[in-house]
Fold each of these.
Amino acid sequence: MLFNHARSAVSYTFDEPNLVSAAGLAPVMALAQDAGLADLAEEKISVRNTGADKGANAGAKISSLVAGMVAGADSIDDMDLLRHGGMGSVFDRVYAPSTLGSHLREYIHGHVKQLGSVSSGFLVGLGGRAPLLPVPAAGDGAGTVFVDIDDTVIEVFSAKKQGAGYGYNSTRGLNGLLVTACTSESSPVIIGQQLRKGAAHSARGADKVLADALGALKKIPGQDAAVVARADSAYYNSKIAGAAARAGAALSVTVRLDQRIKKTIAEIDDEAWERIEYNNAIFDETTGTWVSEAEVAEVPFTAFTSKSEDQQVTGRLIVRRVPEKNAAKLAAGQDTIFDTYRHHGFFVRHEALC
């Protein structure tokens, strides 16, 4: 016997007036308010007011959007979770999703920069209430804050999504540029961010984002430790180096193995290479083998010599090399006649990195 009735559509609503669906929002938003989130947004966000008051109460609306994201919302429609159950008795000015969406639709690029200013000020407020970046007095990385910049593609699924495009990973999405800070005692803290078109090059506008992030870092209460800015080869350019230098930060950036770098590596004296062994072997995906030893060397180096003299940066080129091994030939007992190596180099500018 078969059941011949289709199941009717089912929807669920959290409507118990004495309960809230996300009780964890209470301490989180209390901290946000204490750190000045709403006040900063009200002060800095200047969305024009229309007949529908789309720009009114920016502080409360930004706080609502933050609360929704903390509670798990990933779209404007999801913001309706803030109006379920007893949320209205816990929080004031709980806006409808349509109201929040109308507010955001009034934003232009200048308002995005204003939000960046709100974010920096909020970070300072949080730093005044908790040690965001504690620095140990001794041990590896003691007295140092490491600032990393990198980008990621945030996948979207509609060809009509504004700004969406195919980036370096062949995925349709938006490109998010992030700057994080951490110490050996802390988890990474986001200190800078910028959303860009999906097809944006990794380094597009990165120097300005890094400069703003390093500026915000200096304002965090208790942050007076040395700073090292780190990045991969996509950010090896004079603008990034200049942004770090102007902020008083050391720089460590992976270099691209262009002809000049290869020539510099080839000129390193054989006696300059020092052997190192890893405590834990590293799997080399290129050869399919485990690497437990390598050699390192360093030489003085001036980066960006194709630029004007004021943009050139003097520092050191540090190179790690590992033996080039063909796993298949080694398995067949065919060793190489002479040693060949693969190289990985990075440029540093700061004597304190020795």
Note: DSSP finds ten helices and ten strands in the chain.
Amino acid sequence: METRKVQVTGGSTYTVSLPKEWATENDVSAGSVVEFHAEEDLLLLSPRRENGRVEGTLDISGLDEDHELTRAVMTMYVSGFDVITLETPRISPKQRRVVRDAVQGLVGLEVIEETSDRVVLQDLLDSSELSVHNAITRMQLVSLTMLADAIDALVEDDDDLAADVIHRDEDVDRLWYMVSRVFRTVLRNPTAATEIGFPRETVFDYQSSARQLERIADHATKIAELSREIDAISGETGEKLRTLREEAATVPETAMEALLADDSEAAVEQANQARGTIEDVDAMAREVDEQVREADPQSAQVLGLVVDSLSRTADYGGNIAESALQKAAPRP
């Protein structure tokens, strides 16, 4: 940390000098234009970018495995690059296919140029067009609907419904990557926080909660996959699993209401209500777990994993409630 003394110029203008090392590293010199961003008692300074686009280049020569190349594209996207150039002496047809598939799973990203030795991707949306609020609201709706449908698929032995649940996980992932991208962009560029209309702390709370919703969707997918391993579940066990799912889902539902509430007192009340429900879910989960153990060994193992996923859903909701409490707390 460096300190500077504030000077008065012309009797009414406050001035302060910039650290030379910082100015040199960021190409700031006499005549350069810089931007100031006010955040309550903070004043953030950043160089003005000419075109506002952040460009990055990645050598994909050694990335032959599908998951490695997919992960590389997603990492560049989440890191906040607006223009991504993928280079190698010669791009194989398989690499082109993997890149196109990866692009389909990322909001706003498109292939804008292809040659024999490179593929250029560009994010066609700017921060002002992305709503983190709408994204996490959509994630909540999709993930909890997936969970309900996964239990129905399990109880009714509906393989088509299970397949649909598994497919919907891609929608949640797309929104999760978008929220993560906006979060990292806001950390790097204070202007982005102004454009999307939320303080950076709020974006952090939303990103943390989006992660929990993404995990709920993953467990819904897991239940849908497990449902294919056993036949339909009839009688009391099926009804108890549905009841447990309903009780577990109330935790993230109530926690999300707290997170998105404008009134701090209401948010604290709802968050504490969500956290208090977790004990009831755990007690119910233990009861259901004891009952499913009476089934045949294969069914008992599968249903035990399902009960665990429902219990974890409540825990993830508790994590969202913690974020809601932090968001509602007074700022120092």
Note: The mean pLDDT is 90.
Amino acid sequence: MRTSAQPQRDRYADIVLVERSPLRRTLGTAGAGVCAGAVIQYLCDPDRGRTRRARVRDKAAHATHKMYKGVAVLSSDLPKRGRGAVAGARHRLRARSAVDDRILYERVRAELGRYVSHPHAVEVHVDGGVVALTGDILSAEQQRARRAVRRVPGVRRVDLRWRTHVVAGATPGLQGPSRPRRPVPELLQQRWSPSARLFVACCTALVWGLTGRLPRPLSWAARTACTVLALRVVTNLPLRRITGISSGRRAIDLQDAISIAASPENIWPLVSDYRLYQEIMPDVLEVRLLGDGRSHWVIAGPAGTCVRFDAVETRREENREIAWKTPDGQLFAHVGAVRLTPEGKGRTRVQVQMAYNPAVGAIGHAVAKLLGVDPVHKLREDLMRLKTVAEGEQAATRPAVAHA
């Protein structure tokens, strides 16, 4: 039975909703107007508007090309995986019948290669579906290997006749480093297949649609999980690389190359002398050589900040390659290499490979791009400056040709 206080509360709630609706519409309209004005001002700027519109057009064309390519890959991957799943199910159902011993032998050997570090030290004998295993094996691997062989379709019984060893010791068949390649589930791999990404995206959208019926704390938790999975699907990167947590020096990979009309001997001084970087790269504010291949760098960061880090050379080959990394504990952790490859006729290919971990992983990389600090674009600009300087010095040192 409803009391008199309940209708009053209901009327009060209705009044609040009526009062809030126009305010929300006004705020939404104002926000949309501000965003539209910012976009128009960005694209129609008298000085740089034309360049920005061309860049937006190129990025839109690139995104469209990637979308069409992704759809083509998905349309090829999805049917193949479907046929594979059907063939696997048919294989499991038919495997209960008798299997030829030669086929069963190959199946057992393939399975041992996934769970045993030295599979060639194990001998396999098959007779009428009965598998006898002899040879040598480490004791830490025998139970896992036995279960794997027992699950092979067509195996009726497994007889263990091998010799187990706690350590390899002097056993010839157990010598040398080796690591079994165990099967990894699809969703635990670093790179997901197009079909797996589509499946996770559909499940994420379904769960997000059902969160409205859940209590508020559970709804927030479910939507947070859906957001994380959506980022995983879009970027196709492990979560540790997206967030930068426990990813070491590799969260974002950068790579670019350029062909320069100069010999490696003329380019090498520009690449190997870090003090010249301040003249070639405007973002490099200071470089101090600390000795023993160590150096201290100060570079311009996003929003007018300065980023400081130390670097240590890990490899140096004259006129060919320089590799470096940051010591542990650096805020701007990264690793990189510069390679010079002769192309003939006085030309050299300069290739730069870098992997770095910004403050918040791939999210920090995306924020830096929004702030106008795109590492890929800056790397390309630095290579173009290196090309200009190297070819200018090459032309200056070239002997003049006397004209008759």
Note: Residues 11-19, 400-404 have pLDDT under 50 and may be disordered.
